[in-house]
Design brief:
Helix content is about 20%, strand content about 35%.
């Protein structure tokens, strides 16, 4: 019995470690700035859960509306909407919280479904017309809650941003 409990503890601790997301070589702040459509600092006004997709299991999708205080790239006005997933082991999904401020690096692309080989991974084509332009935060490695030390350092590296246009 003791061996079983030891084995179970080992398996559970391994599972816990395997669930996290680790970016081995994240881009530098300035490299990420070049690769994205929009870089801004904003506070989450609302996080609206979108309808579930039957092929995504329990993974949820969200439309995140933010109030923008500062842009470094791609001014889109005082509010902006991102589309994001609940956090997962694939490093996609940020878990944005209402009322918190974030530094966001996002790309624009047409709404579509994503596949890994022949297997459905995640998608947007059932909640937005296919091809509708949408913003998605980039995979983890840059940006995040402005309360984090590394994010405050990224903001210092970016320098002074611009206030959003009307």
């Amino acid at each position: 019995m003791h061996q079983f409990v030891t084995f179970l503890a080992l398996v559970l601790s391994t599972v816990h470690l395997a669930v996290g997301c680790t970016i081995v070589n994240p881009p530098s702040t300035l490299e990420a700035l070049k690769q994205v459509t929009v870089v801004f600092r904003g506070t989450v006004l609302a996080s609206t859960q979108l309808p579930s997709h039957p092929k995504m299991g329990s993974r949820q999708r969200y439309a995140i509306r933010l109030s923008v205080s500062e842009y470094w790239k791609g001014d889109r006005g005082k509010t902006i909407t991102l589309y994001d997933l609940s956090p997962g082991t694939d490093c996609i999904g940020h878990g944005f919280e209402r009322g918190r401020e974030y530094l966001i690096f996002a790309t624009q692309e047409g709404a579509r479904d994503y596949f890994l080989g022949d297997d459905f991974w995640f998608g947007w084509a059932d909640v937005l017309p296919p091809g509708t332009m949408m913003l998605q935060p980039i995979i983890a490695g840059v940006g995040g809650a402005t309360s984090a030390q590394f994010v405050r350092q990224e903001i210092r590296e970016l320098g002074h941003g611009l206030a959003p246009k009307e």
